[in-house]
Structures are given as C-alpha cells and as structure tokens.
Design brief:
Structural class: alpha+beta
Oligomer: single chain
Strand order of the largest sheet: 2-1-4-3-5
CATH topology of the largest domain: GMP Synthetase, Chain A, domain 3
Helix content: 25-40%
Number of helices: 11
CATH architecture of the largest domain: 2-Layer Sandwich
Radius of gyration: 34 Å
CATH class of the largest domain: Alpha Beta
Order of helices and strands: EEEEEHEEHEHHHHHEEEEHHHH
Number of strands: 12
Distance between the termini: 99 Å
CATH superfamily of the largest domain: K homology (KH) domain
Length: 336
C-alpha cells in the first residue's frame, strides 16, 4: 500500500494525497511546500503519513518539497493581506467592463506569484479583458475560476435554519449529491423554502440521516399494505419512522372508519439486522393475494402461481367433453 500524507490548501476544503518524500515525521497542522499543477503551493497537513489502499490513489503522487520556513510564513501572511485589495480591484474592473458576473473571492499563492479569482455567473463569460487589466495592475499572473452557488456560500459563511454555522464552512470538506427523494424519504415538507439552504439548493443535511430512514423503512410495513390491528385488518396510511409506529385505516360495520396508530418493532441495523428473525412486513400477504386481488387490496404486485379452482374444473371438462367429429359419428351409427 502506498504511503501518503493528507494536505489541504484552505480551511475546510478537499484533502489531497501527496508523497511524503522522506518527511515521515510530519504531523497534523504542520505547514509544507508542495508541488502542484499550478506550481509550488503552501498547504497544511491534515493527517500524518499513513498507508492507504492503492484504489484510493489515482495517478502518480506529487512530492512534498519541504517544510514551510519562517520566511515562507511571512510571505503567506503578506499575501493574505493583499487579497482584500485584489478583490476590490476585481469588483471595480468587472463593473467597468459590464461583465455579468459576481466576484466572490481572490486568493494569492503563498509567495504572491499568482492570483486566483473565483466568480459566479449563470452564463459563460469572456473575461480576457478583465484578466489583462488585473494582471497589469497587480503585476502577477491571474487565473479566473468559475464556481457554483454552494461554493459561494462556503466562501462567505453564515448560519443555517438550525441556528448553527453552515456545515460547508465549518467541517464539510466535500459536497455530497442531494436529491428531493431524500426529503420524501424523511417525510419532510416538499416546499422549496423549507428544504433549501442559504445557497438556494437542497440542504446538505438531508443526506446525513438518509441511510437510517432507508433501512428503517425496509423493515416497516409499506404504504397501503394491509396489516392486522386490535381493531381488525386495515390499510397503512402513514409511517412514523422515529416513533416506530404506523397509522392504519380500519373499516368497521355500517361504513364506519377509524384511524388507529399501531406500534411496530424497532428497526435493527448492522449485523443484528441480518441475524434477526423479524416479523414480515405484511403477514398473510400471500394468502390474501388470490382472494383480494379483485377487490383492489393486492399484495404489492405479488400473484399466486397456483391455478384457480374454476380454471382446473374448466380444463377437466375440456378433457372429458367429446369433440364435434365424435358426436357426428355416433349420430350416424344410431341412424344405421
């Protein structure tokens, strides 16, 4: 297994693998100079050198050049103070050129040799004139990089609906795919304002408990399935995962109906789930499939492979009924 060290270039950002190149005494929070596609850059150690599976390493590892020295740290601090002026200049030049874009961040390399400008836009932008003006004013190499609205919120920060600082700006290093199906799985309101974050996209926290809800629902009765209750059989109308119960519609005599909340066994996870002998979600479903299918209470598209009694009687009658030619031959024999 290859020996790697984790390095991040900005707080709460993606961790990249690098070859320690003999620097096996590195520890977390050390600053190092590494070789990247953009040249030499200063990064911060996230985890000390360790072995990882070869499947996690894609392509050749770039080496760590050396530890960051005191002069390197001074250069990096000076470059950080210049980023505010660079960002202000980028705003002014973008407005002067009437470019439909929003500059959100300017980031210098540790030695001030290059500047990366992050911006958001809903369309493609021809920023060649902007790059030329900024490089002439700052006497450095300029690179423009377009980002999405989630990265924009990550750069700015803020507070979410829960009242806590945004996950993406405090600890979430990479964005995970989030879909509206996750909100449905957790019985959340599908109102856009309720399930969207400051960035206008679906809340990242929808994915945190999605695996729990998915596994729990597999072990609970399905919607519209028929289960037995103390009041009699009824259809499942609501599923309460956290309460480990379901709401069942029970039909009584004289077309009366009532909603009954029935507790169900708590979901089992991990190895215990595979070894447990939990009750089936819909007991007796196979027995009801043949008798209630015509009444619209089907058993989740399950059909019986056994032929019906009427079909068996029909086949027996077909086997014993004489054919038309036999009857005609018998009729001619009687006439003779």
């Amino acid at each position: 297994m290859p020996l790697v060290v984790g390095v991040a270039f900005q707080p709460v950002t993606k961790v990249y693998y690098f070859d320690p190149a003999g620097n096996t005494d590195l520890i977390a929070d050390d600053y190092v100079i590494v070789e990247t596609s953009r040249g030499r850059t200063m990064g911060k150690i996230v985890f000390a050198p360790k072995e990882v599976p070869a499947s996690e390493v894609t392509g050749p590892l770039k080496p760590i050049v050396r530890r960051a020295t005191a002069p390197d740290m001074v250069q990096a601090d000076q470059a950080n103070h210049q980023e505010i002026e660079a960002l202000k200049l980028c705003h002014e030049r973008a407005e002067a050129l009437r470019l439909d874009m929003k500059v959100v961040k300017a980031e210098y390399s540790y030695d001030g040799s290059s500047l990366v400008v992050y911006f958001t836009s809903e369309q493609r932008i021809d920023f060649r004139s902007l790059v030329h003006d900024i490089s002439q004013a700052l006497h450095t190499r300029v690179e423009m990089r377009q980002v999405g609205v989630r990265d924009h919120a990550k750069f700015i920060g803020g507070y979410g609906k829960c009242g806590r600082p945004l996950c993406c700006s405090t600890w979430l290093r990479e964005f995970e795919p989030v879909s509206i199906k996750m909100a449905k799985q957790q019985d959340l309101p599908l109102n856009a304002s309720e399930v969207s974050g400051l960035c206008g996209r679906l809340l990242c926290c929808l994915s945190y408990e999605n695996d729990f809800y998915t596994e729990a629902r597999k072990q609970m009765p399905r919607m519209n399935s028929v289960i037995e209750t103390p009041e009699g059989p009824g259809k499942v109308r609501q599923i309460h995962v956290l309460a480990s119960s379901v709401t069942v519609l029970v039909e009584g005599p004289n077309e009366t109906r009532q909603m009954v909340e029935v507790p169900v066994p708590e979901p089992v996870f991990g190895d215990a789930a595979s070894n447990s002998t939990a009750q089936p979600r819909d007991a007796g479903r196979d027995d009801r499939a043949a008798t209630t299918q015509d009444e619209g209470i089907g058993a989740d598209n399950e059909t019986s492979n056994e032929p019906s009694m009427e079909a068996n009687e029909g086949r027996a009658a077909a086997r014993t009924r004489p054919s038309g030619s036999t009857r005609r031959s018998r009729g001619r024999s009687r006439k003779q």
